[in-house]
Amino acid sequence: MVSQYPHFLFYVNAVEAVRDSYGNYTQPTNETFFYSMCREETNGKGRQIQVGGEQLVFSSLIQLPANSVTLKEGTKVLIYADVNKVTMRIEGIVLKFDKGQLHNRIWI
Fold first, then answer.
1. Distances in Å between the alpha carbon of 101 and those of 40, 66, 67?
2. By the 8 A CB rule, do 63 and 3 touch?
3. Could you read off the pLDDT of 46-62 as tens digits, one per residue?
4. How many distinct structural domains can be found in the chain?
5. Of the candidates 14, 18, 60, 12, which has an alpha carbon nearest to the alpha carbon of residue 39?
6. Which of 1, 43, 63, 107 is the Cys-Cys partner for 39 at CB 3.0 to 4.6 Å?
């Protein structure tokens, strides 16, 4: 059986270093959170998208269900082939998010 969304999208929530009560900085951490099921399609032809008046070559197009919440541009995302985060397909930065009627798309 073929699944429409066979991959797992996680996003990285970067926590910046802060000072403790003694004035020492704490170590910054990056927490990853599950976002949605998805389908990652590699940009093998070198196609481009327009972002803020610039033409950018993207690495992958990520297809998402229509009910997924918007991810901000600049958010780091990780795409895995399995939910246990064993096999990574790709990681990148969200260049553009498009909310469509039937599905949403992210370009990284």
1. 19, 7, 9
2. no
3. 899 998 888 999 999 99
4. 1
5. 60
6. 63
